[in-house]
Amino acid sequence: MVELRHLRYYVAVAEELHFGRAADRLRMAQSPLSHQIRQLERDVGAELINRGHHVVGLTDAGEAFLEAARKILADVDEAVHLARRASRGEVGTLAVGYVSEVTADLLPLTLRTFTEQHRDVELSVREGTTGQLLDGLRDRTIDIAFMRSPRVVEDLDYEQLVEEALTLALPAYADKPWPHPRLADLAEEHFVLPTYAAAQGLRRDIEMACRNAGFNPKATRETSPLTAVLLLVAAGVGAALVPTSVTYSYPVPGVNFVRLSEPTPVTAAGMAWRPSNTSAILHGFLEITRDLARTYEGKVDVWPERHILERPPRLPNRPERGAG
Q1: All structural domains of the chain with their residue ranges
Q2: What is the per-residue pLDDT for 172?
Q3: Residue 302 in this model has a pLDDT that exceeds 50
């Protein structure tokens, strides 16, 4: 059977046309080299070298074999090079999933930095609901997902990146102003809530905040995504609790946003991945994300919870209860 080392020995002899020089090049003795070439010819079933007192050239079979041997060795060297680069996270693929309102700030920064450092990695991005992204992680069509804290992640690793305040979204009315309310003041309100299937983390945070304020939210409608929640608010179906970053990312005509008084309820977001995924590409992406989180923490226009204007947003108008 032809071995890879035999190919290297043969190429050296064929290029030097001298066993002594080839042996020096290979850093081995001449006699074992000559023996290995004889063994190679027996394995191939053809003479490869014309011999006299010295090597005088290659046979036709030897010329053909030399071309093929060089290609095989080049392919092996390339395979080794690619494997080493892949082990360092320099080549391969990475599929990133995201919930759009979660990653409006951090993800573009991470993607730009990652592509600058890993130009040979094939990167793909996919938007989805939390439920869709969790399914994608588990069926291995996604490597990492940015989402609100999901309720069940026993089979996944999850790392929280940010907390931000929940803000009240109300239909825009034209009558008396509504002062900054406490969440407990909203116990009798009717709410438009995101569905469990699409936004389980946000739905859990909203319900937990309401329970901590002493009530369970009364749902007039459940829908997703958050743009649909806000459209129903604008239509007067009910109020909603939304992440503060949404007030900047998704301004909807007919919706007024009111910041709640202390204690302000919060919602969390972060990234999830399979613990079994040991890819150097994935872990390089995680480290870039963490570094950026540390670098930009507290800076305006990066973290959603920092998107708080110095001037409070315009308070909505709301009719008195029982008014026309």
Answers
A1: 4-87, 95-324
A2: 82
A3: no
